[in-house]
User: Fold this.
Amino acid sequence: MAEASRRDAFNDVKRETKAIDTSRKLKVAIIGTGWIADSHIVEYKKMPDIEVVALADLVDGKAKAFADKWELPDAHIYASHKELIDNEKDIDLVSVCTYNRTHAECAIYALDHGINVILEKPMCVTLDEAAEIMKAEKRSGKLLSIGFQPRFDPNMKQVREVVQSGVLGKIYYIQTGGGRRAGIPFPFGTTFLEQKTAGIGAMGDIGCYSLDMVLNAIGYPKPLTVSGYTSDFFGKNPNYSGYVKSGHSDYSQLFNVEDFAAAFVRLEGDIILDFRISWAMHMDTAGDTLILGTKGGLKIPSAECWSGSIGGPMKIFHSIGGNLVETEIPLVTEQEHAFYDKIRSMIDAIKDGGTAPIPTSQILYNQAIIDGIIRSAKEKKELTIELPEI
Assistant:
């Protein structure tokens, strides 16, 4: 393949659109009306075949305030996911936008009552919870999709296109991760910072995205073993710059999740995954993503703050005619539609009898790695990842 043709081959990822059939409208509910729910309602309101008919939140008055903010005067307001699901008998889909610790119970209850679910990332907190979610999905026959909108980013699609094209040969090593220099998400309150609500920290917030980027690119092989490390030096430090600047140093007393994690993971197919993720560190980046193959290597520049896309044009390092060559893959600069496409793809799957856009069968492996890192870090040794029977 000529050099120009090779470069252009990975620069034609087009966003697919289809006409929306408004003759059948779906009734949607949102469970959990915090900040991520704003992103859901923004996209739902763009869809003429959607009616948001119900909202639920454990915090008194929060769902009503959300309804007023987004001009949903007819939406029914409930104090819990159970109350909503028990009283709304014709819901087609729920967006579960609650904090991590309640993802499993909300998703399972909805599925067991015959409702399709978009479940925000991370899928849940533990591997056991992931298995229970998948069992509920299986017995319900309903669709469950996990909220990884970066899958729909055109540059992320290019990562997979490059790997799946075979231009890199057999993949044998991956370095991935990234994160933030000072980005502990305390401005959103303490739900990200405490075990009782979050369960996991940086890995659940942004690490799962980084894992999905590379695992999806290589076809989601099974994780086999993991040697993990976690720390919380910044989150527990009242002198952390983010706390000092905002006057919230008292959050350090509540912080009890990881703000940094690293791991060495062996994957099926004799692939090594070298992973690290950070909410806070004394460094500008934890490193670019590198995918090494027998025919070529792919460098994916890290973003300043892991946002679900990449930090610059990718490069393929390979050899042509005995010469060492670098092929730059231009960034796709089209308008951002990833979050819309995440939700729209689920709506279309429900209406067309399709499959879940981001299936739990894949994200189970993502969750298994995170769960394994936490357990390995606690036991201070390499562990075998035992995947559950579903």
Notes: The chain has eleven helices and 15 strands. The chain has two domains: 26-150+339-356, 153-335+368-379.
